[in-house]
Design brief:
Distance between the termini: 45 Å
Strand content: 15-25%
CATH class: Alpha Beta
Radius of gyration: 17 Å
Helix content: 25-40%
Largest sheet: 5 strands, antiparallel
Bound molecules: magnesium ion
CATH topology: Creatine Amidinohydrolase
CATH superfamily: Creatinase/methionine aminopeptidase superfamily
CATH architecture: Alpha-Beta Complex
Number of domains: 1
Number of strands: 15
Order of helices and strands: HHEEEEEHHEEEEEEEEEEH
């Protein structure tokens, strides 16, 4: 069952994602060597509550925090801790909010200070693979068209795409149908219609594609200990082109000033 949103509902989802976009930009101000991921979590929670919303992940399936903070070889679902970020790390920050009953969910992988050239390139390719996926989120296309575009771009850089974790529909619930894999074949999967709102979220590894689940029950890491990057947008499928509800514009402004 694919739930199609009305124009009014898409506008509400836009507001939720605008708040996530602004929260991630607030986080961008604080990501630097010497800062703990728990500190980032506190900043995010205050910012979200100050804007009349509640954290979307906290308490979801028992998740303890406002943010998922996944450092270096952690792919996703890491939780904030007293880990102190250090020069050369990367940290994927995944943020959820609920505003007026509607979820927002987006992620950005931040460099901590100066990072190695090969890791910088991994971030660039992962973000570019997301943009390639977005281009396919058009009415009449199939989910597999997005999956194929993401995979093709990521693999063209020599990287691998995580199979176990996928994007998803979003709305009043954080995770709705359909699943949006980051790998697949063109012309397969559910057909998209105007009003379908989905999160596209490539998780791309520098080394092998395989993952391991940590004993904390949440954190998923790369099997070979090499870094992984993660970027996530929510988009509303439309007739001519996708209506992107997330923006990295505010984050880019912060990062380019540093
Ligand atoms: Mg998501
Ligand atoms: Mg997310």
């Amino acid at each position: 069952m694919l739930y199609l949103k009305t124009d009014e509902e898409v506008e509400l989802l836009r507001q939720s994602h605008l708040l996530v976009s602004r929260t991630l930009a607030e986080i961008a101000l604080y990501v630097k060597p010497g800062v703990t991921t728990l500190f980032l979590d506190k900043i995010a929670e205050s910012f979200i509550r100050d804007h009349g919303a509640v954290p979307g992940f906290k308490g979801y399936a028992g998740f303890p925090s406002t943010l998922c903070t996944s450092v270096n070889d952690a792919i996703v679902h890491g939780f904030p801790s007293d880990y102190v970020l250090k020069e050369g790390d990367i940290v994927s920050v995944d943020c959820g909010v609920v505003l007026n009953g509607w979820n927002g969910d987006s992620a950005f992988t931040f460099p901590v200070g100066e990072i190695k050239e090969d890791v910088r390139r991994l971030l660039d390719y992962t973000r570019a693979s997301l943009e390639e996926g977005v281009k396919e989120a058009v009415a009449g296309n199939r989910i597999g068209d997005i999956s194929h575009a993401v995979q093709t771009k990521a693999e063209s850089g020599g990287y691998t795409v995580v199979r176990e974790l996928v994007g998803h529909g979003i709305g009043r619930k954080l995770h709705e149908q359909p699943e949006v894999p980051n790998y697949g074949k063109k012309g397969t999967g559910p057909k998209m219609k105007k009003g379908l709102v989905i999160c596209i979220e490539p998780m791309v590894n520098l080394g092998k594609k395989e993952t391991v689940q940590m004993r904390d029950g949440w954190t998923v890491k790369t099997i070979d200990g090499k870094p992984s990057a993660h970027f996530e947008y929510a988009v509303a499928v439309d007739k001519e082109k996708a209506d992107v509800l997330t923006t990295f514009e505010f984050i880019d402004k912060v990062l380019n000033k540093m």
